[in-house]
Automatic annotation (TrEMBL):
It comes from Lentinus brumalis. CDD domains: PAS, ZnF_GATA. It comes from the Eukaryota. Residues 164-191 form a coiled coil. This is GATA-domain-containing protein. Residues 272-292 are annotated as: Disordered. Residues 43-98 form the PAS domain. Residues 233-266 form the GATA-type domain. One of its GO terms (biological process) is regulation of DNA-templated transcription. InterPro entries: PAS, PAS-like_dom_sf, Znf_GATA, Znf_NHR/GATA. GO terms for molecular function: sequence-specific DNA binding; zinc ion binding. Keywords: Coiled coil, Metal-binding, Transcription, Transcription regulation, Zinc, Zinc-finger. The keyword Coiled coil applies. PANTHER family: GATA ZINC FINGER DOMAIN-CONTAINING PROTEIN 14-RELATED, OS01G0976800 PROTEIN.
Length: 292
């Protein structure tokens, strides 16, 4: 049997040092800070008849209204006419059954308007998701107020995603439209080519039918300006001296006719005449002389 004195005694664990947690509720007027710092949710305190007793500051950023403009007003008057009946029924049922309400309604903006196709303007509306619950006294079960929270639906992240999807769909639609326009353009080009080919064959068809060539030139007009222009356009010359390809007139050179441009041809002809005159002078001086 083991000696109890030899068994090590287990020391009690030291308690872990607790990290102090800052409690938000210890801040002064923490409830007011919590409500005023909400910028994406509108808090309403409503009466049993849906009259606004309190409205959060976020309504200014989301809808453009001031909170004092909505206090003592009917919240249903701010909604779209088609949404009022459903919201009124859901609100009444929530108050009666003391259950939570979930409803969707379009609320009107103050300073933003939409212009329809018939040039009539209407206030811009934003779809909100409204959640609420009635508050009753625990003892007497008396209705005191109705707490409601309204958030834009969908949220900002969902709205950005929807915007991205809409842009992508618009991009796909534009791509399809480009393909259609290209097909129409190719079809128009094809019809235009067919028109010109038909026009080119018109002369041959007319000649075969009447025996007269439309594009033929009469015999007496072979050397006319029309044929000369065609011949000049078809011929290509290069000056062997300066390399020019455009000249008002091509002249004879040492390599044959039309091998020099106008300027080089004139210089060569002048030089050739000068050389010829000098040769004739030398021949006259050195040649035999006859004395009569």
């Amino acid at each position: 049997m083991a000696d109890p004195a030899a068994v090590p005694v287990q020391q009690p664990l030291s308690p872990a040092r607790e990290i102090p947690v800052f409690e938000f509720t210890k801040r002064k007027r923490w409830a007011d800070l919590l409500i005023t710092e909400l910028n994406d949710t509108v808090i309403f305190v409503l009466s049993e008849t849906c009259q606004v007793w309190y409205c959060g500051n976020a309504v200014t950023e989301l809808l453009g209204w001031r909170d004092d403009e909505l206090v003592d007003a009917d919240l249903i008057d701010l909604m779209n006419a088609d949404d009022r009946g459903n919201f009124r029924a859901a609100f009444t049922e929530s108050v009666r059954s003391k259950t939570e309400m979930l409803a969707y309604a379009r609320l009107q903006c103050k300073n933003e308007f939409n212009v329809s196709r018939d040039y009539t303007s209407a206030p811009k509306e934003v779809l909100f998701e409204i959640r609420g619950r009635p508050h009753h006294l625990p003892d007497t079960d008396e209705f005191k107020c109705y707490f409601a929270m309204a958030q834009p639906y969908p949220s900002r992240n969902t709205a950005m995603l929807n915007t991205f999807l809409e842009l992508k769909m618009e991009h796909e639609r534009l791509q399809q439209r480009i393909v259609q326009l290209r097909a129409q353009s190719q079809a128009l080009e094809g019809s235009t080519d067919g028109f010109f080919s038909t026009s080119d064959n018109f002369g041959a068809t007319e000649a075969a039918r009447t025996g007269y060539d439309v594009g033929a030139v009469p015999d007496g007009e072979d050397d006319g300006p029309r044929k000369k222009v065609k011949r000049l356009a078809a011929e290509q010359h290069v000056c062997v001296t300066c390399g020019r390809t455009d000249s008002p007139e091509w002249r004879k050179g040492p390599l044959g006719p039309k091998t020099l441009c106008n300027a080089c041809g004139l210089r060569w002809a002048k030089k050739a005449r000068k050389t010829g005159d000098e040769g004739e002078g030398d021949a006259g001086q050195n040649g035999p002389s006859t004395v009569f």
